[in-house]
Specification:
The chain has 328 residues and is α/β, with parallel strands linked by helices. Helix 2 crosses helix 13, helix 7 packs across helix 11 and helix 7 crosses helix 16. It folds into two domains: 201 residues, D-Maltodextrin-Binding Protein, domain 2; 104 residues, D-Maltodextrin-Binding Protein, domain 2, CATH 3.40.190. The chain is globular and about 60 Å long. The two termini are 37 Å apart. It is built from 16 helices and ten strands. Helices cover 49% and strands 17% of the residues. 46% of the residues are buried. Strands 7-6-8-5-9 form a five-stranded mixed beta sheet. A three-stranded antiparallel beta sheet has the order 3-10-4. This is ABC transporter substrate-binding protein. It comes from Haloplanus aerogenes. InterPro entries: SsuA/THI5 (IPR015168).
Length: 328
C-alpha cells in the first residue's frame, strides 16, 4: 500500500465534503482500492447527495483493517458507520448470525478473475487441480463460485485437489502472484488490469462467466450490494432512499460520460495506464437497478451454490428474511 496514494484519494473526496447543514449525514467507509469509490466520488463531485436530500461523508480505509465481516457488522450495529458494500451472501451470513444489517441497493457483479503468468498451463476450470491458488480469504466469493462451478461442470472440488493460499488482503495477493508464490490468484476485478496490462500475466478465468453459467440466466445479477444498519434505516429512511437515487444518477453519468473517468483516472487510480481497462470493466460490472425478479434470481443462484458447495462453504444455510430492502 502506498500511503501517499491513499491520502491523495482521500483529499480528492475531502475537496467535496462541504457543510452538511441540516441534511442527514450518511457516513460511508470504503476500501481505498475498491471500485465503489468511483461511484461515491461521482456522487460527491456532482453534488448528487445534497440534490437528493442527504450528506455523504466518505472515508477511505485499508482492506487489511476492513477485510473481516465482523468489523463491518460491528461498525454498522454500533453506529460507527452507516454505509458499506459487500456481497449479498455475506449479508445473509451475517444477518443469520444476528447482525442487524440490510442490503438496500445493488452495486454490481463484483467478482474477479483468475490471473496467472502468461506461460501458465491453466486454461480453465478443468486445469485447477494440483496448483497453488491464491485468494484473499477462504470465504472469498470468487473461490466459492469456482468450487461450485467445478463441482457442477467437472465433477471435482478444487478445495480437495488444489492447494489454497490465503493472502489476507488484495495487496498481499498481488504480491504473491507477482512473486510466483502461487500458480494463479483470484484477484478482485479492478486490480486485474494492474497485472495483465504489464504483459506478464493473463486472466485465464473471468469469474463473472461462472455467475451467469451457474445462475442459468442472461440477466446480469448483482453480487455486491450497498449495506446499512437496521438502526440507520429506521432513523433515516429518506437518506437511504436518497442514496439509492443518487447512486442511480451517478451510474447513468458514469455509463455515458468519459470526462468524469478522466478525473477519476487522475485522482483515484495509481496507474493511469490501466484507466481504459478499469472504465470498461466498471461499465460491464455495474448493475443499474433491481426488483423482485432480480432478487428471485439472486436467491436461485444462492440455492445453486448451496446445493453444490454446501453451507460450510457459504457460511449460511439460507437467506434470512429481511436481507433485502426494496423500498427505494
Amino acid at each position: 500500500m502506498n500511503r501517499d496514494h491513499v491520502d491523495a484519494q482521500q483529499a480528492a473526496f475531502d475537496a467535496h465534503h462541504d457543510d452538511p447543514g441540516d441534511l442527514p449525514v450518511m457516513r460511508a467507509r470504503f476500501e481505498y482500492n475498491g471500485s465503489p469509490r468511483f461511484l461515491l466520488y461521482a456522487i460527491k463531485r456532482l453534488d448528487l447527495d445534497h440534490r437528493h436530500g442527504f450528506h455523504l461523508d466518505v472515508q477511505l480505509v485499508t482492506d487489511e483493517l476492513e477485510s473481516g465481516m465482523e468489523t463491518i457488522r460491528h461498525r454498522l450495529d454500533e453506529g460507527d458507520t452507516d454505509l458499506v458494500d459487500t456481497d449479498y451472501i455475506s449479508v445473509a451470513r451475517e444477518r443469520a448470525a444476528g447482525a442487524n444489517i440490510v442490503a438496500f441497493h445493488p452495486y454490481g457483479r463484483t467478482v474477479g478473475g483468475l490471473v496467472a503468468p502468461e506461460d501458465t498451463a491453466i486454461e480453465g476450470l478443468a486445469d485447477l487441480s494440483g496448483h497453488r491458488l491464491g485468494v484473499t480469504r477462504r470465504l472469498d466469493k470468487n473461490w466459492i463460485l469456482t468450487r461450485a462451478a467445478c463441482r457442477k461442470f467437472h465433477d471435482f472440488d478444487p478445495a480437495e485437489t488444489a492447494t489454497l493460499v490465503e493472502a489476507d488482503s488484495r495487496d498481499d495477493l498481488t504480491r504473491l502472484i507477482r512473486g510466483g508464490e502461487v500458480d494463479a490468484g483470484f484477484q478482485f476485478w479492478p486490480l486485474v488490469p494492474e497485472l495483465t496490462e504489464t504483459g506478464r500475466f493473463v486472466e485465464v478465468l473471468p469469474v463473472s462467466d461462472l455467475v451467469q453459467r451457474l445462475a442459468g440466466t442472461d440477466d446480469k445479477l448483482p453480487i455486491a450490494t450497498f449495506v446499512t444498519g437496521d438502526s440507520y434505516l429506521d432513523a433515516h429512511p429518506e437518506a437511504v432512499r436518497g442514496f439509492a437515487a443518487a447512486a442511480q444518477d451517478a451510474v447513468d453519468h458514469l455509463l455515458t460520460r468519459d470526462d468524469i473517468w478522466d478525473d477519476i483516472s487522475r485522482r483515484l487510480l495509481p496507474d493511469a495506464t490501466v484507466a481504459s481497462a478499469v472504465t470498461t470493466g466498471w461499465r460491464e460490472m455495474v448493475v443499474t437497478e433491481w426488483g423482485a425478479e432480480t432478487i428471485a434470481g439472486m436467491r436461485r443462484l444462492f440455492d445453486h451454490l448451496h446445493a453444490v458447495a454446501g453451507a460450510d462453504a457459504l457460511g449460511v444455510e439460507t437467506i434470512p428474511d429481511g436481507t433485502f430492502w426494496l423500498d427505494p
